[in-house]
Amino acid sequence: MPDETIAEAAIRWFRDNARVLPWRHPDAGAWAILVSEVMLQQTPVTRVLPAYEAWLARWPTPATLAADEPGEAIRMWGRLGYPRRALRLHECATAIAERHAGVVPDDLDALLALPGVGAYTARAVAAFAYRQRQPVVDTNVRRFVARAATGLADAGHTTKPADLTATAALLPAEPELAAQASAAFMELGAVVCVARAPRCAICPVVDRCAWRAAGRPALEGPSRRPQTYAGTDRQVRGLLLAVLREAVEPVPRVRLDVVWPEPTQRDRALRGLIDDGLVDPLPGDLFTLPSGR
DNA sequence: AATCCGTGGCG
DNA sequence: TCGCCAAGGAT
């Protein structure tokens, strides 16, 4: 099919090769898709799957989550990481209940105004839940588009307006096909056009890939150095919050003190959690997950 | 714009 | 073993 566009080839491949994921099921509504998108922010699919099912079984609508305590959302989040996402998702559910009559909005600007919903998640919901023609650009799509359309080994570290433009240029005009193409681009980036060892041999777009045509040039710029985790405030925050997640009753400070020997960093981490609204201090030097009022 | 924010699995 | 990183967002 030499006349096939990149999007057409990707869609055709996606129909036969897409992973079966619950948020892709026809029964998945906008709320379920929104929940999945937030959970998938920086967390692998395999770890999201059980948490996603449990979350929706407990809170099948935004209103049910909004009616519960934010601390319960943090507890339910478990070990997905970045627990601020759980708090934001609770705030998001509250905003949907109060401002949108309990219905996840379909308008891009309304979605962008929701807590914890950024450029990626807003467009993902618009495209996957409401079948709109929106460029859905995550790290996988940026890499796929940078290679296939632009010929670069990878995109920059941060998403720029040019990434949206470049992706939108590849989308079919018809909204339903555009939504399918967006899903296909993401899947290709996640499964085939991966960062380390791209599987060009099975790529449905290899014939039209600019990067392949250029001989797969290597990445030029300096690689970003990921900061180490051990010994950081993030680790300490994680340890502190783990204690509170498991506790049924408010926890005395001494039970938090034992998770980290260095008091300055420990106090800074706890103060940070309180500032972020992830922990509530109570009279008597007790601490809990936030009850919400 | 650069930095911060968790977690666990894998080569 | 341990560095590396996986569907971002907020500041």
TrEMBL record:
<dbReference type="Pfam" id="PF00633">
    <property type="entry name" value="HHH"/>
</dbReference>
<dbReference type="InterPro" id="IPR011257">
    <property type="entry name" value="DNA_glycosylase"/>
</dbReference>
<dbReference type="Pfam" id="PF00730">
    <property type="entry name" value="HhH-GPD"/>
</dbReference>
<feature type="domain" description="HhH-GPD">
    <location>
        <begin position="39"/>
        <end position="191"/>
    </location>
</feature>
<keyword id="KW-0378">Hydrolase</keyword>
<dbReference type="InterPro" id="IPR000445">
    <property type="entry name" value="HhH_motif"/>
</dbReference>
<dbReference type="InterPro" id="IPR044298">
    <property type="entry name" value="MIG/MutY"/>
</dbReference>
<dbReference type="InterPro" id="IPR004036">
    <property type="entry name" value="Endonuclease-III-like_CS2"/>
</dbReference>
<protein>
    <recommendedName>
        <fullName>Adenine DNA glycosylase</fullName>
        <ecNumber>3.2.2.31</ecNumber>
    </recommendedName>
</protein>
<comment type="similarity">
    <text>Belongs to the Nth/MutY family.</text>
</comment>
<dbReference type="InterPro" id="IPR003265">
    <property type="entry name" value="HhH-GPD_domain"/>
</dbReference>
<dbReference type="InterPro" id="IPR023170">
    <property type="entry name" value="HhH_base_excis_C"/>
</dbReference>
<keyword id="KW-0227">DNA damage</keyword>
<keyword id="KW-0234">DNA repair</keyword>
<keyword id="KW-0326">Glycosidase</keyword>
<keyword id="KW-0411">Iron-sulfur</keyword>
<keyword id="KW-0408">Iron</keyword>
<keyword id="KW-0479">Metal-binding</keyword>
